[in-house]
Amino acid sequence: MKISAWGRYPYISSEQVQLDNSSLWSEPFIVNGNLRSYGDAALSRKHLNTLKYNKFLNFDYISGLLTCDAGILLSEVIEVFLPRGFFPLVVPGTKLITIGGALACDIHGKNHHSYGCFSNSVDSFKLLLPNNQILFCNRNINTEYFHATCGGMGLTGIILEISFYLKKINSKWINQKSIKNKNLIETFDSFEYYNQIPYSVAWIDCLARKKNLGRSILMVGDFCNDGDLSFKQPKKLNVPFNFPSFILNSFSVKLFNNFYYRKFPAGVSENKVLYEDFFFPLDSIQNWNRIYGKNGFIQFQFILPKEVSFIGLESILNKISNSQLGSFLAVLKLYGKSNDNWLSFPIEGYSLALDFKMSSDLPNFIEKLTDEVIEFGGRIYLAKDALLKKEQFDISYEKGNEFREFRIKNQLHKYFSSLQSQRIGI
Amino acid sequence: MNNKPWISIFGANSDIAIEVARIYASNGYNLYLLSRNVSSLQRIKADLQIRFEVNVEIYHFDATDFKKNSEIYDILPTKPIGVIIAFGVMFDQKSTQDSIKLIELTVETNFLGSITILETIAKDFEARKEGFIVGISSVAGERGRQSNYIYGSTKGAFSIYLEGLRHRLYKSNVRVITVKPGFVNTKMTENLKLPFILTASPVYVAKKIFYAVEKNKKTVYIKSIWRYIMLTIKLIPDFLFNRTSL
């Protein structure tokens, strides 16, 4: 079968292998779930899909500790537990990911600056190793496996079950403030000013230039306390086919970005929005990835250390807006401290994520941008990546080599392999 | 947890059965799950209880243990309002032809197993003058074909059995529904290459079953195209049919 992840680049033929099959360990494979990473981290010649492993196994109403199979989707967790007043401690920009994927990518969300990564909410997990041994891992038992596996891109074993905490909430509504910022300085000031609010994210117009460079809408918020927990299946639109590639060009994207920016009143506005619209705005449009046409796209997400975030972003944003390679609004986000996991993406600073429609010039452009990110001491998010080079990985992920040696020492490199792991040599 | 009626699923570990259990639980029904594999049932039970906050009880059940089949129903504390027969085995035709063991297992599980359990249940439902019975049969039971006739004949026999049972229980207000899935993506068909438009997902099958019970249907083809495919196959005259490789 032909598969790709959410970025629809690359597309490859891949054969499915099964967990209960004796020939499972005969050739290297990668474990994948709902294929909502963007690049090639979940792609390989052979893959083991976890979606059918979708059982909830235990829930403790007092502590909020949930144990479930790795193939459970975050959307299922929310559907089941939101009406009971519980919500995952960390959610990314889509709820259509598996819990196994959340762990393997050590995902983060709008509250990284106040809470940290998904692994922070994880109590323990069970990992199946190539000798068919099931390893129980937490911060005290099999510690190395724990820190290698959280963020380890599925390269350390098959994640079977995960125990992680949900938090208590008392509403499905979010009190949201939207702050309109005219340029990058204002954007940064707003982030710092509102950093006590748990959730924050900014939509930034990366085609704006000169005095408008870095203009943005910062959205901050937290759950209301009105007791309304009624769950309704959200309505969905669909993108039924690939858009022809000419539809997205620098003109149409500029038009959209302008329109979006102008929609917001100047200064600060407040409103109450549904959790769904606050956390997962794009989930309401099924197959939105098709708007980039059949060649797919790259979601480029990098993070810069705080002390160089401003000058770094200014310089990189300038290059992006000059390139006119076009992207819808990009996402800027403030991050808190890094954790102990070997390949977790976040470091204290700011990250920018934006989409580029795939074209022949793009890999070259991305390589240059990545070099600059790395010169500033930053790195690229592996869950989004399809183009990072081994040398670039080695400089930017300081525990990359430790991870590599751990895989070799435990013979994991012979069994778990993705296009990404081959490309960056881990 | 609630006082809603109970549904009993025999062969509750099958992919279709799991989805049937979910759809009934999501409508508030309590569940008895019966299967040979109790450890797997424990996981299914936990999942259903957490998702839907219903009562779930599990029992060991082996369809080929005929003597026990009549007793197992008596054990159930609250008698169910509905029963779903979801167990069945299918082996490759060629291997079955050459193996008495596989022949026995196919006939005993799919046919004798179903009858022995259903007769006990029918008696109870008949006396209570309520209830429904869903039998998951197969389109393979509509005409014997060289590629699958041993499995097919057990399902054919099962369909006729259900037909008779429906006839008998009609007066007692007990509904009997024969479900004929075509291809379904399950553990049973994991290694077969199935044509997309003829293949249903277990979730889809479960929805159709729930709907069939609600709407008082008698025989349900999961994808309606199968009704016409099987009709066509049945209409092919023998002298042509015998030359095909169906």
Description:
The complex is a heterodimer of chains A (426) and B (246). Helix content of chain A is 24%, strand content 26%. Chain A is built from eleven helices and 21 strands. An eight-stranded antiparallel β-sheet of chain A has the order 16-12-14-13-19-20-18-21. In chain A, strands 6, 7, 8, 9, 10 and 11 form a six-stranded antiparallel β-sheet that branches. A three-stranded parallel β-sheet of chain A has the order 3-5-4, with no helix packed on it. Chain B is built from nine helices and nine strands. In chain B, the strands form two sheets. A seven-stranded parallel β-sheet of chain B has the order 3-2-1-4-5-6-9, sandwiched between helices. A two-stranded parallel sheet of chain B has the order 7-8. The relative contact order of chain B is 0.13. Chains A and B meet through strand 6 of A and helix 2 of B.
